[in-house]
Amino acid sequence: MAEILAGQAGHVNYDVIPGVVYTSPEVASVGKTEEELKKAGVEYNAGKFPFSANGRARSMLKTDGFVKVLADKKTDRVLGVHIVGFGAGEMIHEAAVLMEFGGSSEDLARTCHAHPTMSETVKEAALATFAKPIHM
Predict the structure, then answer these.
(1) Which residue in 54, 69, 86, 92 has its CB near the most CB atoms, within 10 A?
(2) What is the bridge-based pairing of β-strands 44-50 and 65-72?
């Protein structure tokens, strides 16, 4: 809005605004849900990866939770990401940036992630949309 008031072009992509519920465990999401995609008739692939298979989560005893990535079946463009568990609100931003630029699940899966980190669960869930996760 400030951009528009300053005479510049404003842009807000409402499809990639992340939402976070600060509960224990945290819940975070960006983009479409499976229910929304089904209702719209969009064919998609879903990749899911549990925190229980992540080394960092295991070492911190924070293994409850998962990441789910939803990608268009034809184009592989990421349409939604949902995270339940420790640090979900800190990890959802990676998906929002990817989606803002029209990235694919393969883009996300092939991006190098620091090890060991909780964010590797996002990479693994993206990998699960088109292949097999590395750590399962």
Answers:
(1) 69
(2) antiparallel
H or E element, residue 110: helix 105-110
Given the residues 11, 82, 113, 115, select the one marked as catalytic.
115
Gyration radius (Cα) of the chain, Å? 15
88 in Cβ contact with 22 (< 8 Å)? no
Q: Which two tokens stand for residue 42?
A: 């969009």
Whether residue 7 lies inside any domain: the answer is: no
Whole-prediction pTM value? 0.92
- Determine phi and psi for 127, rounding to 5 degrees: -60, -35
What CATH number is associated with residue 88?
3.30.390.30
Query: pLDDT tens digits, residue range 6-43?
Result: 777 777 889 999 999 999 999 999 999 999 999 999 99
Could you list the residue range(s) of the whole structural domain that residue 29 is in?
15-127
Q: Confirm whether 135 is a catalytic residue.
A: no
